[in-house]
Design a protein that fits this description.
Elements lengths: L18 H7 L2 H8 L5 H21 L1 H7 L10 H24 L3 H22 L10 H22 L14
Helix pairs in contact: 3-4, 3-5, 3-7, 4-5, 5-6, 6-7
Protein backbone atom coordinates (compact mmCIF):
# COMPACT_ATOMS: atom_id res chain seq x y z
CA UNK A 1 0.00 0.00 0.00
CA UNK A 2 1.02 3.45 -0.79
CA UNK A 3 1.22 6.09 1.88
CA UNK A 4 -1.09 9.03 1.34
CA UNK A 5 0.72 12.16 0.32
CA UNK A 6 0.44 14.86 2.93
CA UNK A 7 -0.40 18.26 1.63
CA UNK A 8 1.35 21.27 3.00
CA UNK A 9 -0.94 23.58 4.86
CA UNK A 10 -1.65 26.62 2.85
CA UNK A 11 -0.12 29.78 4.21
CA UNK A 12 -2.42 32.71 4.54
CA UNK A 13 -1.68 35.68 2.38
CA UNK A 14 0.69 38.02 4.12
CA UNK A 15 -0.39 41.55 4.56
CA UNK A 16 1.79 44.42 5.69
CA UNK A 17 1.68 45.32 9.36
CA UNK A 18 -0.41 48.42 9.93
CA UNK A 19 0.62 51.26 12.23
CA UNK A 20 -2.06 50.23 14.73
CA UNK A 21 -0.73 46.65 14.82
CA UNK A 22 2.84 47.88 15.24
CA UNK A 23 1.76 50.25 18.00
CA UNK A 24 0.21 47.34 19.86
CA UNK A 25 3.40 45.30 19.59
CA UNK A 26 5.84 47.95 20.79
CA UNK A 27 6.64 48.72 24.40
CA UNK A 28 6.41 52.34 25.58
CA UNK A 29 10.22 52.63 25.50
CA UNK A 30 10.37 51.34 21.92
CA UNK A 31 7.67 53.82 20.87
CA UNK A 32 9.68 56.65 22.42
CA UNK A 33 12.80 55.52 20.56
CA UNK A 34 10.93 55.62 17.26
CA UNK A 35 9.56 59.12 17.97
CA UNK A 36 12.87 60.52 19.18
CA UNK A 37 13.46 62.42 22.39
CA UNK A 38 12.55 66.07 22.80
CA UNK A 39 15.81 68.02 22.74
CA UNK A 40 14.44 71.02 24.66
CA UNK A 41 13.25 68.90 27.57
CA UNK A 42 16.55 69.15 29.43
CA UNK A 43 16.72 72.94 29.18
CA UNK A 44 13.12 73.41 30.29
CA UNK A 45 13.77 71.17 33.30
CA UNK A 46 16.87 73.14 34.25
CA UNK A 47 14.86 76.37 34.04
CA UNK A 48 11.98 74.85 36.03
CA UNK A 49 14.36 73.57 38.71
CA UNK A 50 16.04 76.94 39.17
CA UNK A 51 12.73 78.82 39.07
CA UNK A 52 11.01 76.48 41.53
CA UNK A 53 13.90 76.62 43.98
CA UNK A 54 13.91 80.41 43.77
CA UNK A 55 10.15 80.64 44.30
CA UNK A 56 10.09 78.13 47.14
CA UNK A 57 12.94 79.82 49.01
CA UNK A 58 11.40 83.28 48.57
CA UNK A 59 7.87 82.18 49.48
CA UNK A 60 8.73 80.02 52.48
CA UNK A 61 11.64 81.88 54.08
CA UNK A 62 11.12 85.48 52.91
CA UNK A 63 7.33 85.68 52.75
CA UNK A 64 7.16 89.09 54.48
CA UNK A 65 9.46 90.60 51.85
CA UNK A 66 7.38 89.10 49.06
CA UNK A 67 4.22 90.48 50.68
CA UNK A 68 5.73 93.96 50.91
CA UNK A 69 6.64 93.94 47.23
CA UNK A 70 2.97 93.56 46.28
CA UNK A 71 1.91 96.94 47.80
CA UNK A 72 -1.26 95.56 49.35
CA UNK A 73 -3.74 98.18 50.49
CA UNK A 74 -3.48 99.19 54.16
CA UNK A 75 -5.94 97.45 56.43
CA UNK A 76 -5.85 94.21 54.46
CA UNK A 77 -4.76 91.05 56.19
CA UNK A 78 -1.14 90.01 56.23
CA UNK A 79 -0.25 87.86 53.22
CA UNK A 80 2.93 86.36 54.70
CA UNK A 81 1.14 83.24 55.92
CA UNK A 82 -0.60 82.85 52.57
CA UNK A 83 2.76 83.03 50.76
CA UNK A 84 4.27 80.42 53.08
CA UNK A 85 1.42 78.04 52.37
CA UNK A 86 1.75 78.78 48.65
CA UNK A 87 5.47 77.95 48.86
CA UNK A 88 4.76 74.63 50.57
CA UNK A 89 2.12 73.87 47.94
CA UNK A 90 4.67 74.56 45.17
CA UNK A 91 7.22 72.38 47.00
CA UNK A 92 4.80 69.45 47.22
CA UNK A 93 3.71 69.77 43.58
CA UNK A 94 7.33 70.03 42.43
CA UNK A 95 8.28 66.94 44.42
CA UNK A 96 5.48 64.91 42.82
CA UNK A 97 6.45 66.20 39.37
CA UNK A 98 10.14 65.34 39.83
CA UNK A 99 9.39 61.92 41.32
CA UNK A 100 7.04 61.14 38.45
CA UNK A 101 9.65 62.16 35.90
CA UNK A 102 12.60 60.36 37.46
CA UNK A 103 10.70 57.14 38.20
CA UNK A 104 8.72 57.21 34.91
CA UNK A 105 5.54 57.00 36.98
CA UNK A 106 2.60 58.13 34.77
CA UNK A 107 4.59 61.18 33.76
CA UNK A 108 2.20 62.17 30.94
CA UNK A 109 -0.75 62.34 33.34
CA UNK A 110 1.15 63.94 36.19
CA UNK A 111 2.56 66.62 33.86
CA UNK A 112 -0.96 67.51 32.72
CA UNK A 113 -2.28 67.63 36.31
CA UNK A 114 0.63 69.84 37.47
CA UNK A 115 0.06 72.15 34.49
CA UNK A 116 -3.62 72.44 35.41
CA UNK A 117 -2.74 73.13 39.05
CA UNK A 118 -0.26 75.82 38.01
CA UNK A 119 -2.81 77.56 35.78
CA UNK A 120 -5.50 77.48 38.46
CA UNK A 121 -3.06 78.66 41.14
CA UNK A 122 -2.01 81.55 38.93
CA UNK A 123 -5.68 82.44 38.27
CA UNK A 124 -6.49 82.34 42.00
CA UNK A 125 -3.53 84.59 42.77
CA UNK A 126 -4.53 86.90 39.94
CA UNK A 127 -7.83 87.63 41.66
CA UNK A 128 -6.75 87.37 45.29
CA UNK A 129 -3.21 88.76 45.52
CA UNK A 130 -2.80 90.81 42.37
CA UNK A 131 -6.32 92.19 42.84
CA UNK A 132 -5.37 93.63 46.24
CA UNK A 133 -2.39 95.57 44.86
CA UNK A 134 -2.37 99.32 44.75
CA UNK A 135 -0.28 101.63 42.62
CA UNK A 136 2.64 101.78 42.04
CA UNK A 137 3.41 98.18 41.11
CA UNK A 138 6.88 97.15 42.19
CA UNK A 139 9.33 95.65 39.69
CA UNK A 140 9.68 92.50 41.81
CA UNK A 141 5.90 91.91 41.63
CA UNK A 142 6.03 92.26 37.85
CA UNK A 143 9.03 89.90 37.71
CA UNK A 144 7.15 87.42 39.91
CA UNK A 145 4.15 87.61 37.54
CA UNK A 146 6.28 87.11 34.40
CA UNK A 147 8.25 84.27 36.01
CA UNK A 148 5.04 82.41 36.77
CA UNK A 149 3.89 82.83 33.17
CA UNK A 150 7.24 81.45 31.96
CA UNK A 151 6.89 78.49 34.33
CA UNK A 152 3.40 77.78 33.01
CA UNK A 153 4.71 77.96 29.42
CA UNK A 154 7.48 75.43 30.23
CA UNK A 155 5.03 73.14 32.01
CA UNK A 156 2.73 73.35 28.98
CA UNK A 157 5.54 72.37 26.60
CA UNK A 158 6.55 69.49 28.88
CA UNK A 159 2.95 68.29 29.18
CA UNK A 160 2.28 68.20 25.45
CA UNK A 161 5.66 66.58 24.74
CA UNK A 162 5.71 64.22 27.73
CA UNK A 163 5.57 61.16 25.47
CA UNK A 164 8.87 62.25 23.96
CA UNK A 165 10.64 62.61 27.29
CA UNK A 166 14.11 61.06 27.42
CA UNK A 167 14.14 57.37 28.26
CA UNK A 168 14.78 55.94 31.70
CA UNK A 169 17.07 56.08 33.60
CA UNK A 170 16.11 59.68 33.64
CA UNK A 171 17.88 62.55 35.25
CA UNK A 172 17.99 66.28 34.98
CA UNK A 173 21.68 66.63 34.26
CA UNK A 174 22.38 63.61 32.04
Amino acid sequence: MKKPVQQEPSTPARRPISDADMDGLLTPQERKLLQGADKGFRYRHIFLTVAMLTLIIRLVFFSATVGDSFNVQPGMHDLATYFQYRGLYVLLASAVYVLSYVRDWYFERVAMVILTMAIFGWAVDLFSVYGLMKDPTSPSAILFFVLRLAIIACLFMNAIRAKRAPLAPRGFWS
